[in-house]
TrEMBL record, chain A:
Descriptive protein name: ATP synthase epsilon chain
NCBIfam families, A to Z: ATP_synt_epsi, PRK00571.1-4, PRK13442.1
Residue stretches making up the ATP synthase epsilon subunit C-terminal domain: 88-130
PANTHER family per the UniProt record, alphabetical: ATP SYNTHASE DELTA/EPSILON CHAIN, ATP SYNTHASE EPSILON CHAIN, CHLOROPLASTIC
Known function: Produces ATP from ADP in the presence of a proton gradient across the membrane.
InterPro entries reported for this sequence: ATP_F1_dsu/esu_C_sf, ATP_synth_F1_dsu/esu, ATP_synth_F1_dsu/esu_N, ATP_synth_F1_esu_C, ATPsynth_dsu/esu_N
Protein's UniProt keywords contain Membrane: yes
Record CDD domains: F1-ATPase_delta
Coiled coil feature spans: 91-134
A GO term from the CC aspect: plasma membrane
Keyword Nucleotidyltransferase set for record: no
Topology in the lipid bilayer: Peripheral membrane protein
Organism, scientific name: Kushneria indalinina DSM 14324
From TrEMBL, chain B:
Subcellular location: Cell membrane; Membrane
Record bears the keyword Phosphoprotein: no
Stored PANTHER family: ATP SYNTHASE GAMMA CHAIN, ATP SYNTHASE SUBUNIT GAMMA, MITOCHONDRIAL
Principal cellular location given in the protein's record: membrane
A cellular component annotation (GO) from this entry: plasma membrane
Gene3D superfamilies in UniProt: 3.40.1380.10, ATP synthase, gamma subunit, helix hairpin domain
Record-given protein name: ATP synthase gamma chain
Protein role: Produces ATP from ADP in the presence of a proton gradient across the membrane. The gamma chain is believed to be important in regulating ATPase activity and the flow of protons through the CF(0) complex.
GO MF term set: ATP binding; proton-transporting ATP synthase activity, rotational mechanism
Amino acid sequence: MATMQCNIVSAERNIFAGEVERVVAISVLGELGILRGHEPTLTELKPGPVRIIHDGGEEEVFFVSGGFLEVQPNMVIVLADSADRARDLDAAEAEKARDEARQALQGKSGEMDYQQALAEIEAATARLRTLSQLRNRRGNQ
Amino acid sequence: MAAGKEIKSQIGSIKNTQKITSAMEMVAASKMRRAQDRMAASQPYAGQIRRVVSHISQANPEYRHDYQIDREVKRIGYIVVTSDRGLCGGLNSNLFRRVLQEVRQWRDQGVSVAFCALGTKGSVFFRKYGGDLLAANRNLGDAPEASELIGSVNVMLEAFDNGEIDRLDLVYNEFVNTMSQKPIVRQLLPLPEEDVDQDTSSSQEAASASKGGWGYVYEPDAQSLLDKLLVRYVESQVYQAVVENIASEQAARMIAMKNATDNAGDIIDDLQLQYNKARQAAITQEISEIVGGAAAV
């Protein structure tokens, strides 16, 4: 049967690229099977399997945690999310980032103290180095 | 002149340091290669999203998302990407200098500033510098996942949605090549025109498409797709910046450690010379003492 080009990419890497006969994915409106010559479509995917049927019926399954699917005349592109993106999960992640910022400013964790001490040592050694360089230069004159 | 034994032990300790720095150099070199691979691997996703976004924008010229509308800037947000660790030359301090320079310019125009720090060094810096830190990520490690950054990016996007900030910039170290990394500032929001609107003008595909319009079937509808895609696009830009910054960090560390190893070698040579002189002086002195003693007898 006729094949088409299929690319599955995530933010981190290329997951799949090659000639396929059919792509089956689950969009927000239901299951979607795509063959060569499918109407150009852009749709959002639900978390679930994306099945790829190679020429000859061999099947390969990729799990995506949501994303987008674009169909061009002879090409299918899946933009896969790299993680589950439920709304409340996003909010939880955001809260975590805010917490880290607060912690960083208040510096309640021991690790931050350590990091700050390190930064101060670095600054102090840089100052010392400059001083000794200056002294050397003056000594040589 | 310092005693021979002291110089000897100094040489020993510098040799140990040299071993450490040369090991760090090699580790950084291999990590850099891997970071470069990840850099390359993250490009297709951002490219595809950019293409799709510009399709939709062209097909729906009447709809403009908030992220595409310029507004008067009263407050600007910066996402500052730094490394987790030090010992990478002036990489982070150059970046901070660049940020402060930008901030000063904005403040002169009466614009206030908010920050988001990705990477431990950034958090430490803003703790000392002060400033309005909205979100932070620490300990990203060598191979952060895009999902780890979602939280911080989300905070900044929310701030943009609520009108707390009117523009969002991304600051990171551009990987020019192994020898040079350059801190750069890029505008994320509102999306620069060339990012979405003119991107496809080069491809033939788009030329034919703009004539006939994109006969796309959108599920559920174009606008909600665009909204979500734009968020993903910003996230992928930030992820790319983080990965690129890691490559820069490793390259900078590799060079810094190479210099340290070379310097240690120079110091060892100097000390060795001093040691030989001291030894020679001691022998000469002994001989002259013996000769002097023999003459006296």
